């Protein structure tokens, strides 16, 4: 007889299986966690000593707002919390002394708010953060134009820093003009930018060698592109051997002089020589046809004793002799 109801669970194969007996669990051995031991006083002292030693191996760069107007411009940023320029300079001097006391090599750069704003715009950085200011400071260190801090007072450091910054700006501008002169063909083939720079180096050596022993102070002035490029260089020729030229001032001087040669500019070079137990002497040359033409004694006197702005005569310096420039052999 057919069964029409649902088949129950008990009618399934294996439906009457025995209940499973749970297996006893074997507890896993616990590995004790190592206890964190606090460093001993000796270990902490050793770490601090190591960090101090490493700190002396890492140089530092400090960007200084030397001008009060530049300082005032930075006060527009909320993250710049200084409000007194004098106090700011004193704190900076204290920071520099602290670095020096720890043996840290420190260079100082001039902080330019205008250049900083342009830097932040180019790099898409927020100018109102300390991080952006430190990034700009790092870029200044790479570009050059810094002064090594050697314990000098801030009153002596600031003028030197301004002078180095101006020298850097002069070199950059003169380099751009010299490059443009070479690429645009503004001069003959024998006075391209490279040739002009080589001639400038030869002219500088010729002037210093012709002047003889002593301490020489050279000034080169070149009107170019609506402005006046001025470079200053000190040369020490008191000892035997080649004169010692101050660098990077020597590079700036050669670049400005090369600009005058390449651009055919009516510039000039003046040399003041100091020798022990002798009066100071002043000589001069005019830039002419890619070389230096010696000025006469009267031309040197007129150039030194005439106000460049008003044209009025200026009394000659006491104890200074004005002499004609020395003829210099032009290189082949």
TrEMBL record:
Residue span of region Disordered: 1-59, 312-332
Basic residues composition-biased segments: 1-54
Name of the protein described by the UniProt record: Uncharacterized protein
């Amino acid at each position: 007889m057919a069964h029409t109801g649902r088949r129950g669970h008990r009618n399934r194969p294996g439906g009457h299986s025995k209940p499973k007996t749970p297996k006893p669990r074997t507890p896993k051995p616990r590995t004790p966690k190592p206890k964190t031991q606090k460093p001993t006083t000796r270990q902490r002292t050793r770490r601090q000593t190591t960090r101090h030693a490493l700190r002396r191996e890492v140089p530092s760069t400090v960007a200084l707002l030397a001008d009060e107007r530049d300082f005032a411009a930075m006060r527009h940023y909320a993250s710049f919390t200084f409000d007194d320029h004098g106090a700011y300079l004193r704190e900076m001097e204290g920071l520099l002394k602290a670095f020096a006391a720890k043996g840290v090599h420190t260079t100082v750069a001039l902080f330019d708010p205008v250049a900083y704003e342009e830097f932040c715009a180019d790099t898409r950085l927020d100018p109102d953060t300390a991080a952006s200011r430190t990034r700009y400071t790092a870029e200044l260190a790479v570009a050059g134009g810094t002064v090594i801090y050697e314990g000098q007072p801030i009153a002596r450091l600031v003028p030197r820093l301004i002078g180095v910054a101006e020298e850097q700006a002069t070199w950059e501008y003169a380099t751009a003009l010299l490059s443009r002169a070479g690429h645009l063909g503004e001069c003959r083939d024998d006075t391209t930018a490279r040739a002009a720079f080589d001639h400038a180096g030869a002219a500088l050596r010729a002037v210093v060698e012709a002047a003889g022993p002593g301490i020489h102070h050279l000034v080169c002035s070149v009107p170019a592109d609506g402005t006046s490029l001025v470079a200053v260089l000190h040369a020490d020729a008191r000892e035997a051997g080649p004169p010692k030229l101050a660098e990077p001032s020597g590079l700036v001087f050669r670049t400005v002089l090369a600009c005058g040669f390449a651009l055919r500019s009516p510039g000039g070079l003046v040399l003041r020589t100091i020798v022990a137990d002798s009066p100071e002497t002043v000589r001069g040359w005019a830039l002419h046809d890619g070389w230096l033409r010696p000025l006469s004694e009267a031309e040197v006197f007129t150039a030194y004793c005439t106000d460049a702005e008003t044209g009025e005569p200026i009394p000659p310096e006491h104890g200074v002799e004005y002499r004609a420039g020395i003829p210099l052999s032009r290189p082949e």
